[in-house]
Amino acid sequence: MIEFLKAILFGVVEGITEWLPISSTGHLILLNEFVNLNVRDEFFSMFEVVIQLGAILAVVVLFWNQLWPFSKKEKYYIKQDTFMMWIKIIVACLPAAIIGILFDDVIEDLFYNYQVIALALIVFGIAFIIIENYNHKRKPHINSLTEITFNAAIIIGLFQLIAAVFPGTSRSGATILGAILIGVSRSVAAEFTFFLAVPVMFGASLLKLVKYGLPATGMEVIILLTGMIVAFVVSVIVIKFLMSYIKKHDFKIFGWYRIVLGILVLLFFGLIK
């Protein structure tokens, strides 16, 4: 029962932090320091990635009409704008996919530690504040998904690569930051980030399942399914909140949160632990 409750907590944290630009991987790693799941190390390495499938399902459900490229009402049964959007998504995902496949073990060994997580939290927190101040009087020139060019998709993909390498960066945070920087509106930047997550997280989950295998015990299956279901429910709520929030607010509050959390992480692990 205790492990079941812990899985619920991990699902809640995943559902919140996956879509807010504050780093889900960083929060899950830190949470495991305080609420340690009584499971094998191999299972937890798989769990902290595969739990994201629940969050991804929330995007698929909420944005199904925008994501599904086929329609009987369209010529050749293909929605051309949606089809082109998927090509741009694939282009944007290529840098992170290539690096992830080739250097997954190296990245995990080198950068999955509290120093990197704290530094990434602080640096990108500062970046959010600076870029939002810089964009305060600028008007975005990309105000719809169809206006995102292949060049813009590649640039956003390179920002996503940073998050793929450095835990604590936040995949959503990095891609939203990159998109805003090149003139994409906040709402479009958020939507494109949500859609980018679908192939990225499915691919990352598949990579972890191939590496570590399926859950070996009944308890591990229950823990994984519980985390995914809770992450799905919480993600639906958080995505709706975020899309409403960014219509009237900027992302600076998340920048300040990241900075404070990064400092607390350094203090806790550097001085207390």
Automatic annotation (TrEMBL):
An example Gene Ontology cellular component term from the record? Answer: plasma membrane
- Keywords noted in UniProt: Antibiotic resistance, Cell membrane, Cell shape, Cell wall biogenesis/degradation, Hydrolase, Membrane, Peptidoglycan synthesis, Transmembrane, Transmembrane helix
Query: Where would you find the membrane-spanning parts of this chain?
Result: 7-31, 43-64, 85-103, 115-136, 148-168, 188-209, 221-243, 255-272
Q: Where in the cell is it found?
A: Cell membrane
What Enzyme Commission number(s) apply to this enzyme? 3.6.1.27
Give the way it sits in the membrane.
Answer: Multi-pass membrane protein
Instruction: Give one GO molecular function term.
Output: undecaprenyl-diphosphatase activity
The answer to whether UniProt assigns keyword Repeat to this entry is no
Catalytic activity, as annotated: di-trans,octa-cis-undecaprenyl diphosphate + H2O = di-trans,octa-cis-undecaprenyl phosphate + phosphate + H(+)
Keyword Cell membrane tagged:
yes
**Which processes are annotated in GO (biological process)?**
cell wall organization; peptidoglycan biosynthetic process; regulation of cell shape; response to antibiotic
Name the InterPro entries for this protein. UppP
Task: Give the family, as the similarity comment puts it.
Answer: Belongs to the UppP family.
Additional notes on this entry: Bacitracin is thought to be involved in the inhibition of peptidoglycan synthesis by sequestering undecaprenyl diphosphate, thereby reducing the pool of lipid carrier available.
- Job of this protein: Catalyzes the dephosphorylation of undecaprenyl diphosphate (UPP). Confers resistance to bacitracin.
Quote the protein name from its UniProt record: Undecaprenyl-diphosphatase
Query: What species was this sequence derived from?
Result: Anaerosporobacter mobilis DSM 15930
Taxonomic lineage per UniProt?
Answer: Bacteria, Bacillati, Bacillota, Clostridia, Lachnospirales
